[in-house]
Amino acid sequence: MAVSDPIKLNSPIQAHGEEITELTLRRPTTQEARAIKALPYKIDADEAVSLDLDVAAKYIAVCAAVPPSSVNQLDLADLNSLAWVVAGFFMTPASKPSTT
């Protein structure tokens, strides 16, 4: 399972009764994506990609194993960075296809 490098937060948050200064995101599973029922990004008519922050926040909670209330404490810059990491999981395959 793909996992991001630890992402240092600009401002610490509280999760599970502890102060958190960095988060590591794991790749969501297909089952989790189906349960959330949305992608963390939208593709506009001009093919520009934009984040859906509400959906991305749900993925951050699941993939970082923190409660949604902890996601709500994130600095906006941290939310943006984490949301793009989550979106990246959907835009790249988990593994490279075999060329043999």
What does this structure look like?
The chain is α+β, with helices and mostly antiparallel strands and about 100 residues long. Helix content is about 40%, strand content about 20%. It has one domain. Helix 2 packs across helix 4 (about 75-90). The mean pLDDT is about 95.
Brief rundown of the structure:
The chain is of the alpha+beta class and 100 residues long.
Number of domains: 1
The residue-averaged pLDDT reads 93
Largest sheet: 2 strands, antiparallel
Order of helices and strands: EEHEEHHH
Structure annotation, total helices: 4
Any key phrases for this structure?
single chain; 100 residues; alpha+beta; two-stranded antiparallel ribbon; 39% helix; globular
Strand and helix layout:
Elements: E1 7-15, E2 18-23, H1 30-36, E3 41-43, E4 49-51, H2 53-64, H3 68-71, H4 76-91
Antiparallel strand pairs: 1-2, 3-4
Helix pairs in contact: 2-4
